[in-house]
Amino acid sequence: MEKIRLAIVGVGNCASSLIQGIEYYRTHEGAEKLGLMHYDLGGYQPGDMEVVAAIDVDKRKVGKPLREAIFALPNCTLVISPNLSNSKPIVSMGHVLDGVSDHMRNYPADQTFVVGDEKPCDVEKVLRDSGAEILLNYLPVGSEEAARFYAGCCLNAGVSLINCMPVFIVSDPQWGRKFAQRNIPVIGDDVKAQLGATILHRALTQLFVDRGVRIDRTYQLNTGGNTDFLNMLNQSRLQSKKISKTEAVQSILDSPLDERCIHIGPSDYVPWQKDNKVCFLRIEGRGFAGVPLNLELRLSVEDSPNSAGVTIDAIRCCKLARERKIGGPLTSVSAYAMKHPPEQIPDAEGRQRVEEFIRGQRER
Ligand SMILES: NC(=O)c1ccc[n+]([C@@H]2O[C@H](COP(=O)([O-])OP(=O)(O)OC[C@H]3O[C@@H](n4cnc5c(N)ncnc54)[C@H](O)[C@@H]3O)[C@@H](O)[C@H]2O)c1
């Protein structure tokens, strides 16, 4: 079977985990039973993906072969596959635009981005010359201008976009229409990790609703020590992330909570945590005869492999859509795999719709 040709913008921790994970599944006997929603999805296995182009702006990554760049600082995620046989492309210099927040300059180099001074590449040419079919957008939160710039390059080059971060593109009707008009399938926005804070918060909220317990208030506080968390110390970059994470939970409720009764967001940067993310979740409600109850939960995960566990399916669904000549936002897989999709669907139904899509029984 021919390989799915990927391009990546933002060679950070999420990209690193995805690439290492592809190698892991390609080389580990028996691994097909571990950690995946689908080993075979529509005839494609994880090893059937190949990264053919990569773009970043950090001088420790630009100009390096991708298999080295994914281990360069400030990346700090768990090493899964130290020796990569694939991933040969050289990382090209991207367009910085608003990708790097000013406050990041105040931290030691090993914790933060260090922007290179090369001339930015011609992104559309990189995409065309490499034969990339799908671009994964892994830019930092708040890169509104940069995310739209790379999305525009995808439109012009006929490349699909999987928008893993919270700038609203696939869920924006105008952008969605542009991709539909050119018959390019897209998935987004903002990955809902495999077993992360959002899917857990949604599942618990659904449980309260199904069991007739009225939720009065809730919070989800998250800490981590990677550059994603460092970047998110800048509150002015957080608007879309907060909307994305909050709407993902509010959408489960029949009537949304008053905004003063729901607090969800990245909460602090703790350098020694590195790529470990800890979520503290609390839900307060009232059950039978209005009697109060509350739930407290602490979740600890390695942040970046958690996103790869979902992206690995989104990529293959996107490839199926390309083969089937279906363009525009893929609503079922976006709802299942993303926090801020064009259409919010409860996760159990989203999952069912994705299975139907994979079998070819649902168009999008
Ligand atoms: N880890 C998860 O589970 C998860 C879930 C949902 C969404 N996300 C989002 O995915 C995105 C990527 O996360 P990450 O942990 O890999 O981040 P990261 O900070 O490790 O990587 C970001 C990369 O982008 C590069 N970059 C910055 N500006 C750029 C530009 N203009 N052009 C090209 N490259 C640029 C940086 O040099 C860095 O290599 C973030 O927005 C994050 O919020 C992550």
Describe the structure in your own words:
With 364 residues, the chain is of the alpha/beta class. Helix content is 34%, strand content 20%. It has helices at 13-27, 66-69, 123-130, 144-157, 173-181, 197-210, 227-231, 239-250, 303-323, 331-337, 347-359, and strands spanning 4-9, 49-56, 91-93, 134-137, 160-163, 185-188, 214-224, 262-269, 276-286, 292-302, 328-329. A seven-stranded parallel beta sheet has the order 3-2-1-4-5-6-11, sandwiched between helices. A four-stranded mixed beta sheet has the order 8-7-9-10. Strand 9 (276-286) and strand 10 form a beta hairpin. The longest helix is centred in the last third of the chain and has 21 residues, at 303-323. Bound molecules: nicotinamide-adenine-dinucleotide. The site of nicotinamide-adenine-dinucleotide (NAD) has 37 residues, from helix 1, strand 2, helix 7 and helix 9.
